Amino acid sequence: DSVWDVVIVGGGAAGLAAAASLLKRKPSLSIAIVEPSDRHYYQPAWTLVGGGCFNPADTCRSTASLIPANAKWIRSEVTGFLPQQNQVIVENHQHLSYRSLVVAPGLELNWGAIAGLEETLGKNGVTSNYHYDLAPYTWECVQLLKQGRALFTQPAMPIKCAGAPQKAMYLSCHHWEKQGYLGDIDVQFHNAGGVLFGVSKFVPPLMEYVKRYGANLNFTSTLIAVEGPTKTATFRDTAEDGSTIERTECFDMLHVVPPQRAPEFIRDSELANESGWVAVDEATLQHPHYGNVFSLGDVCGASNAKTAAAVRKQAPVVAENLLAHLADRPMPARYTGYGACPLTVEQGKVVMAEFGYGGKLQPTFPLKPAVARTSMWWLKRYAMPRIYFSMMLKGHEWLAKPGKP
Ligand code: FAD
Predict the structure, then answer these.
(1) In this record, what's one Pfam family (predicted)?
(2) pLDDT tens, position by position, for the chain (405 residues)?
(3) Which residue has the least CA distance to atom 21 on ligand 1?
């Protein structure tokens, strides 16, 4: 059986960007990308779809059209790892052998963790921008609502794009404000965590919008159950002394962000850390025990914000270090935890939160970071999708040069 130079698990943002960055450096590599889905999604635009500012179909492309020309797409699912034998197991118990492995299957949305949710998603005013089929329903619900109560929920961290739960709220509120309905809508944000945004520098500009829209913030309040037909949601609220109470609220619209975790075949594997994500060195993105294994994207256990923006900086680091490892050279590249969260505070304005490990600000442009800007909306709405498809997935590493040790 043949041995691939590189097997990549997952053909999402991270798997494709890594493949492109590797092939850019060494076109002769034999690369297999294992990806079960024939459709690839640009998920960052789903927030805009939910706000009525982006065509849903433009977030979806065929996987075939995005696989780099010199890579082989294996349309299958990885089910397990044999890192000591340098093999992955795919469907039908087949094995693929590799010289090095890139693990990038993203994360799992755990809809089932909220009782009653799955039965009512997409009806009864229950929606989520975290699914391609549902983001358009968010916009439908927003347009229909003229009075009543709208609930927006955020689960425990980590989640992909930690700002997305509140982005849905801001864009909805802005629409209701423009229509003159906002005063008749009770807007509640229920956050399982204790802060509005993890990097405190960005909280003041966000709080201005919270006040402007008259939204109520409920911290340490976790959605645990939904009943579609009666339009009720149950939350578990935790007090400072650790005591909890459950309370049920009725709603007219409910935007849910589901709890998130590593996929089961990762959690159950030897590659996982104690939290279930792929264990990596935070700087080199190399697995601590298996030197020929690297990980990036949402499944990666580094403490960065899980975003496509992070992938843009991680892919060149993985490419450089993996090739160095194969050639028995010291690994030259370091990732400093960059991630970005463009907070769509109103239609036409974005607070661009860019930061690395430990919440250290890493602005791309020489502008005061914690300010809502029209220019950043244009970047998010028009430039980023192009940067993603035409640059990041093609190995053109715009402003993504990896750091040195
Ligand atoms: P994905 O892109 O999800 O791809 C994972 C791939 O792995 C999928 O194609 C899947 O089919 C495949 N896979 C799964 N299981 C297996 C298996 N067993 N074997 C093989 N393949 C498998 N990021 C930003 O930078 N900015 C934003 O504004 C932003 N907003 C967001 C808003 C929303 C609503 C959402 C949902 C996400 C947002 N993100 C944003 C996050 C961004 O989309 C993710 O961080 C990014 O897609 C991560 O890339 P990934 O390749 O790790 O995962």
Answers:
(1) Pyr_redox_2
(2) 699 999 999 999 999 999 999 999 999 999 999 999 999 999 999 999 999 999 999 999 999 999 999 999 999 999 999 999 999 999 999 999 999 999 999 999 999 999 999 999 999 999 999 999 999 999 999 999 999 999 999 999 999 999 999 999 999 999 999 999 999 999 999 999 999 999 999 999 999 999 999 999 999 999 999 999 999 999 999 999 999 999 999 999 999 999 999 999 999 999 999 999 999 999 999 999 999 999 999 999 999 999 999 999 999 999 999 999 999 999 999 999 999 999 999 999 999 999 999 999 999 999 999 999 999 999 999 999 999 999 999 999 977 777 777
(3) 10
ipTM of the complex: 0.99
Q: Rg of the Cα trace of the chain?
A: 21
Q: How far apart (Å, rounded) are the C-alpha atoms in residues 405 and 402?
A: 10
- Contacts for 54 with CB less than 8 Å, ≥ 6 apart: 45, 48, 381
Ligand 1 is surrounded, with C-beta below 6 A, by 9-15, 34-37, 43-44, 46-47, 77-78, 104-106, 129-130, 160-161, 164, 263, 265, 297-299, 306-309, 311, 340, 342
Closest CA to 318 of 37, 13, 1, 49: 13
End-to-end CA distance of the chain: 38
10 Å CB burial of residue 51 (0-12, 13-18, 19+) is buried
Query: In angstroms, rounded to a whole number, what is the distance separating the alpha carbons of residues 213 and 198?
Result: 21
Which H or E element spans position 376?
Answer: helix 374-378
Q: How far apart are CA 274 and CA 263, in angstroms?
A: 14
Closest residue by CA, ligand 1 atom 43: 43
Q: Which domains does the chain have, with CATH numbers?
A: 3-107+262-394 (3.50.50.60), 111-259 (3.50.50.60)
Please enumerate in sequence order all residues whose Cβ is within 8 A of that of 66, keeping only pairs 6 or more positions apart, or say none: 11, 16, 40, 389, 393
